[in-house]
Amino acid sequence: MRGSTTKIKQYLLSGVSYAIPFVASGGILIALSIAFAPMTAHGPDFSNSPLLKTMNEIGVAAFQLLVPVLAGYIAFGMADRPGLVPGFVGGMIANTIGAGFLGGLVAGLLAGFIVMQLKKLKVPAYVRPVMPILIIPVISSLVVGFAMYDLIGYPIKDVMASMTVWLNGMGEGNKVVLALILGAMISFDMGGPINKTAFFFSAAMIQNGNFAPMGAVATAICIPPLGMGLATLLAKKRWSEQEREAGLAALGMGMIGITEGAIPFAAGDPIRVIPSIMVGSMVGAVIAMLGGVGDHAPHGGPIVIPVVDHRLMYVLAIIVGTLVTAITINLLKQTKKL
Fold first, then answer.
1. Of 87, 229, 278, 336, which is the most exposed, with the fewest CB atoms less than 10 Å away?
2. Is the pLDDT of residue 336 over 60?
């Protein structure tokens, strides 16, 4: 059982590793285009800015590839190149019908499993050369396509829709719980599968018109590297020269929303660093959620300020969360290393 879970985790990470550049590039292009466009009551006005409009459309196109790429490379991780076609097809269908990233995950796993079974079939020698380039892609795409349209795609869409309704109807207490969970997930493994689960969930909510989860996640994303970087500046004597250099790099990464900037610190002292960054991210996420922060771009950190609702609260949430992380880790650094 443990071996199967590990394999599934590896398959999912394969898809995530290929999908992240699409999310990052799309999110940054969307954020930049909106940042320089005049804002109206109905959103950014691109009528007099064809260049920004094109930039926005390119960013949207990159972001729309997220689910197909995620599904395609999950299947690729399971079944190699023959898994790409049914994976991409299943992911595109999930995107089209509104099943979101959850639909993409299921489509990728299903496509990979079907191709793995087809590759085990014993066929005549003269058929083998066309199996990976014709027969397997056609049959697996048909099976995955029918499954997504007629069996699992729309139920997943309904789950996503119900989740959106639930989020929109949340009271303040429930919002705090959601923010705590998202903040903890984002910071726990700093770019790993738990982080990406929270990120993709929040990105899917953007497509459904709910920007609050992404607001909390955008805040939490940058706090681990910013907090660790600030900690090395506030108490230089508690950090080695190498750690201080890593702190400067972490500050730069935090400004553009790259959580992985905290990994060097967590790798060297996980017992103290991981709780410190989790506390800071959770505090920041809660402040953002209660402050009505909404992020319209699938990215985080100060770089997305132009596309955030309630910007002052967003900045405040980041500052407070960063301070909490920095102060917590410096206090823990006084204790004996565990």
1. 336
2. no
Whether 29 and 58 have beta carbons less than 8 Å apart is answered as yes
Distance CA 173, CA 176 (A): 5
**Confidence band, pLDDT 50/70/90 cuts, at residue 75:** very high
Reading the block at residue 92, the tokens are 């595109």
Say if residues 11 and 109 touch (Cβ distance below 8 Å): yes
- Per DSSP bridges, beta strands 39-40 and 294-295 are unpaired
Task: Examine the pLDDT at 30 and tell me if it is beyond 80.
Answer: no
The answer to whether 54 and 38 are in contact (CB under 8 A) is: no
Same domain, yes or no, for 58 and 119? yes
Neighbour-count burial of 234, counting CB atoms closer than 10 A to its CB (0-12 exposed, 13-18 middle, 19+ buried): middle
CA distance from start to end of the chain: 32
Last residue of a domain, one of 150, 168, 186: 168
Question: Domain count of the chain?
Answer: 2
Note the pLDDT of residue 2. 58
The distance of Cα 273 from the centroid of its chain, to the nearest Å, equals: 22
Please report whether residue 91 resides in a domain. Answer: yes
3 state SS of 65: coil
Work out the pLDDT band at 313, boundaries 50, 70, 90. very high
Nearest alpha-carbon partner for 63 in 258, 216, 203, 211? 203
58, part of any domain: yes
Query: Where does a domain end: 168, 197, 228?
Result: 168
Question: Is the pLDDT confidence value at 151 over 60?
Answer: yes
- Average confidence (pLDDT) over 137-156: 92
pLDDT digits 0-9 by tens, 241-268: 888 888 998 898 899 888 888 888 887 7
Question: What are the tens digits of pLDDT across the range 283-303?
Answer: 999 999 999 999 887 778 898
Q: Are 118 and 139 in contact (CB under 8 A)?
A: yes
In a domain, 36, yes or no: yes
Domain around 121 = 2-168
Q: What is d(CA 213, CA 220) in angstroms, rounded to the nearest whole number?
A: 11
How many angstroms separate the CA atoms of 56 and 54, rounded?
A: 5
Same-domain pairing of 24 and 163: yes
**Structural domain includes residue 337:** no
